[in-house]
Amino acid sequence: RQHEGPRRVKRAWVIPPISVSENHKRIPHLLVQIKSDKQQPGGVIYSIKGPGVDEEPLGIFSIDKFSGKVFLNAMLDREENDRFRLKAFALDLGGVTLEDPTDLEIIVVDQNDNRPLFRQDVFTGRVVEGAEPGTCMMTVDATDADDPDTDNAVLRYSLLEQGAATMFTINATTGEICTARPGLDRETAGVYNLTVQAADMSGDGLTTTATAVIYLEDINDNPPEFTKDEFSMEVEERADGVDVGKVFVHDKDLAGSPNWLAKFTILEGDPEGAFAIRTDPYTNDGVLSVAKPLDHEVRDRFELTVSVQNEGPLEPGVPASPRALATVRVRVRDVNEAPVFRENPRRVSVLEGAPPGTSVTTFTASDPDTHQVQTLSYALLYDPADWLQLDPHSGTVRTKRELLHPSAFLQGGWYIALILARDDAEPPLSATGTLSIEILEVNDHPPSLQPTAGVVCGRPGRGGNLLLGATDEDRPPHGAPFHFHLSPQHPQLARNWSITRFNVTHAVLAVLVELPEGPYSLPLLLRDSGTPPQERQQLLNFSVCHCGREGTCEDGVLAAATAGAGVTLGALMIILGSTILLLGERHLDHPHGPSILPGDDVRDNILNYDEQGGGEEDQDAYDINQLRHPELFSPRAKAPLRRDAPLSSATPLAPRKLPSGPSEIEDFINEGLEVADSDPSVPPYDTALIYDYEGSGSVASPLSSIVSSLTDEDQDYDYLSEWGPRFRRLADLYG
């Protein structure tokens, strides 16, 4: 078998890239003619597709389908589209593809049709004054839309205008602006405005301009200086904290900056520190003020030496200059001054009960105006109890009436009065002095026993103690501690009683032997701690009670509970009896009116409302069945045990007959009450509950109003219909 030789690969049709200049004005313009290698007898049909043909932007390119010539139909802009990539097709007349599609690339050649553009219209930079040459502070930059690979986009920078002095240079390639020479002085020129140019074609093409603004930053290269060497001022004596005047300075540095802010110092002429000087933050001037009150009689003028300098030091390299100095002359004007109480307040003491006319003190003032002859007079400005009298010329204070203690006009044992001193100048001035008089306590009251009665368990030890207390109208140190003793006139008391100290105001009375129950009167001796001490004999009236297991008085508890029971059952009897009486009279007054049938028992359960919220649903306390069937609940019969009572034994009695009228019902209630009161084995659980006080007054009427009027004309029974179904029968009868 023969080996086959290398196959010849047929070259596909290839169209090289076509270049066309942007802004080409001769339209239409032949770009290229394409031709297929496969010619058909009937000819070849050519077509192109892609951006600029059938895609946006449409209609830029076209082709003659028979000759294959490609035409440019519109001007091109490289900055919008720098190249177009199309596809070329070759078909026979029947529409069958003769060759594979090939690429047709059209390259747009750049022209210098765009000026450079700065990124901003105004560039801002800052540099400190006095900066060395070559100090750079900012960079300007521009862009060019032309082809960056051509000279059309190569930019160069230059300074067109910067004023008379050429203080700055610019790097032509980078656009960086730097100082060109020394001598930048903010006080001479604080701002520089430069005109910057950018040109393409390496500086020979199209140009554009922008503005560069350079600010000089301040440094402390100028010390402050006084506007003049001497300043004169005046101030009134006794003025404190007031401003006397200003000293004016000037600083060339930037106003409001730390390099401008001045600091003042008083160097000479004020050894006592009567003046102070501060800087006005707005004007930078020195403000002289009075630090201590001035006295014309002591010194009537001052001559101060004041210096000024910056808060911060001068910049290094700035020539040193002597510190600025100025002389300030201050004259102190004489004014009328008010009198002065040298000792204010004046504190004195007076014994309690001092008689009228007793000298208290001489309270006088002095006049600071030694260069003027003036007379002072005195008056009582404040004497709330009218206890004092004052000599208007000498200032001597005496008592007008006896000073008593205690008094509503005393504050902690002190009486406060105000004295007014006035000179006779025009206009007159006055001063107020405070006179504090301590009313010295005199031990003139013995202590009193508080309380003077009590109850004590008659068994020694637990429960057999009573806490005693005492009060004293005198103030310390003439009051507590108090001393409690059994009367020394009855030494036999010490066999049954003892008194021990509890604290400074109380003692404990203790039972030493078991004592019978009953009332007792025990004489006691009470003594205070005053000088000299006061004492009093006083009777302590108390009761000795029967002691329970816990050392408490059982009799007192039962008595209180029994009293509560009586009130509760008594109120029940009044309500029930009044209702029966009212119904009975109605029946007598209306013999032909509606009558109560035997089967209609208008009596209902008596509700217990001794706990809030019970209402008509709570019917456990009293059952009217006890009234309907007394033979079952009579004291002579064995009553069922109550849930709230402890177990107890009772002797069953003979049953009693059914009550025939209201009087027998009342007797039944009274008998039950007597049994409950005489039963010593259980507490009275059916008594009224004792609640806390909830205020006075009630919207309900008193119980006595039930029987306050018994005539038809005085009674209005329409309200019974509002009381619910239980009172509906009464409402029908009497409403």
Task: Write a structural description.
It is a single chain. The protein contains five helices and 40 strands. The protein is mainly beta and 735 residues long. Among the domains are: 18-109, Cadherins (Immunoglobulin-like); 117-217, Cadherins (Immunoglobulin-like), CATH 2.60.40; 225-333, Cadherins (Immunoglobulin-like), CATH 2.60.40.60; 346-440, Sandwich (Immunoglobulin-like), CATH 2.60.40; 448-545, Cadherins (Immunoglobulin-like, Sandwich). The strands form twelve sheets. A four-stranded mixed β-sheet has the order 1-7-6-3, with no helix packed on it. Strands 9-16-15-12 form a four-stranded mixed β-sheet, with no helix packed on it. A four-stranded mixed β-sheet has the order 18-25-24-21, with no helix packed on it. Helix 1 (554-589) runs antiparallel to helix 4. It is flat and about 165 Å long. It starts with 17 loop residues before the first strand and ends with a helix. Residues 633-661 are annotated as: Disordered. Pfam families: CADH_Y-type_LIR (PF01049), Cadherin (PF00028). This is Cadherin-15. InterPro entries: Cadherin, Cadherin-like_dom, Cadherin-like_sf, Cadherin_CS, Cadherin_Y-type_LIR, Catenin-bd_sf.
